[in-house]
Amino acid sequence: LVRFRQNRPELRASLQTCGRIEYKSFFFLLLSSVCLPQVLCVQIKCFHEIIMIGYSVYHSYHLPWFRTLSWYFLLCVNYFFYGETVTDYFFTLVQREEPLRILSKYHRFISFALYLTGFCMFVLSLVKKHYRLQFYMFGWTHVTLLIVVTQSHLIIHNLFEGMIWFIVPISCVICNDIMAYMFGFFFGRTPLIKLSPKKTWEGFIGGFFSTVVFGILLSYVMSGYRFFVCPVEFNNDSNSFTVDCEPSELFQLQDYGLPPVLQSITGWTTVKLYPFQIHSIALSAFASIMGPFGGFFASGFKRAFKIKDFANTIPGHGGIMDRFDCQYLMATFVNVYIASFIRGPNPSKVIQQLLALRLDQQLHIFNSLKAHLTEKGLLPALEEAA
After folding, report:
1. What is the pLDDT of residues 80-120, one digit of tens each?
2. pLDDT of amino acid 92
3. How many CA atoms lie within 13 A of 261 on its CB side?
């Protein structure tokens, strides 16, 4: 039966198409990881596709300034998020340039003033008999900003933590999509969810185990290269961005003891793994279990408006949002995971902030820190030093 199905021309065509689309998404995302403006381009296109759905449904009402205000709010939110990111990660560079320092100091006030301007423009655009619809579209714009722009901002943060935090999650989503399709095609019998009748439990389970194995193997390969594991930092001496560091314990091989059952099967008592491989299991599990719900959510949204795809950007395959629905949800999880279980205090960032203080404030912190270290016994007491 399997041999018969493999010889079917429609199967070969489907697998080839699936592979082409998934790897197009992969290389597009990979290119975005080294060029932040391209991440912004993906975000803008996804925002455009969702906004145009609302506009196409209600364009006959001739709502004033709807598209203009939508793009204006996109500009405001991007200014806020990108400004916060630049200030957070490249504080030294910002403080060195006077115009950037001023913009950084008053960044949140400027962002609020820009948003407030758009808010007033919306109020002035209200038209009698269309109040409810205009407020509906106002909410439509803000929910779209929440879904697209906020999660794009989290992608940028993941990139700055290291390429591995970007490539492994998106690769797991792609692997799960392909393997769930293959297992579902060959062995699928039990429907998974009514919203997507073609999805089966067999494909869901097969995709899960395949993705976990794939994530562990890919993590092992990438953990050995500094280019992938080191965070992006600004080197003040070379006046450039660098991706070079001493890998943390997360990316250093360690010995892990095997359970007695596996010891009896393999004959090994320990196995060498990168700690990141353990974390990759959580990433793979989320990509396999919760990731598809991003696609289900998008499917429900399209059914609500009786459309097949978000757009026709990729002829025959829909829009950019059709390709990135699961990726956005995955990126949010990765950011939350890093903040909850991985990231700790960053000494370099603390020092950068201390150097931005006045000299008397720096001296006060120095004396407080010296007293604290002396109390802990890490520095000799004043009498002993004398």
Report:
1. 999 988 888 877 778 778 888 899 889 999 999 999 999 99
2. 75
3. 0
32 CA to centre of own chain: 12
d(C-alpha 317, C-alpha 23), whole Å: 14
Q: How many CA atoms lie within 13 A of 210 on its CB side?
A: 19
The CB density around residue 88, as the number of other CB atoms within 10 Å, is: 13
Confidence category of residue 382, pLDDT binned at 50, 70, 90 = low
Contact 37, 308 (CB under 8 A): no
Q: How many CB atoms lie within 10 A of CB 243?
A: 15
Structural domain boundaries of the chain?
35-161, 164-345, 356-386
CA distance 81 to 153: 7
- CA 156 vs. chain centroid, Å, equals 7
Dist CA 177 CA 20 (whole Å):
13
Interacting residues of 90 by C-beta distance below 8 A, sequence separation 6+: 234
* Residues 267-276 pLDDT 10s: 888 999 999 9
Number of Cβ atoms within 10 Å of the Cβ of 356: 15
- Tell me how long the chain is: 386
Tokens of 362: 């720096």
Q: Cα–Cα distances in Å, from 49 out to 39, 182, 309, 336?
A: 16, 29, 10, 27
Alpha-carbon dihedral 314, 319, 321, 323, rounded to 10 degrees? -40
pLDDT at 16 over 70: no
Burial of 299 (0-12, 13-18, 19+ CB in 10 A): middle
Q: Where are the beta strands (DSSP E) in the chain?
A: 191-193, 196-200, 233-235, 240-242, 254-257, 270-273
Amino acid occupying residue 16: Q
Question: Amino acid identity of 71?
Answer: W
pTM: 0.83
What integer is the mean pLDDT of 341-365?
A: 83
Task: Give the Cα-Cα-Cα angle 106, 112, 117 (nearest 5 degrees).
Answer: 125
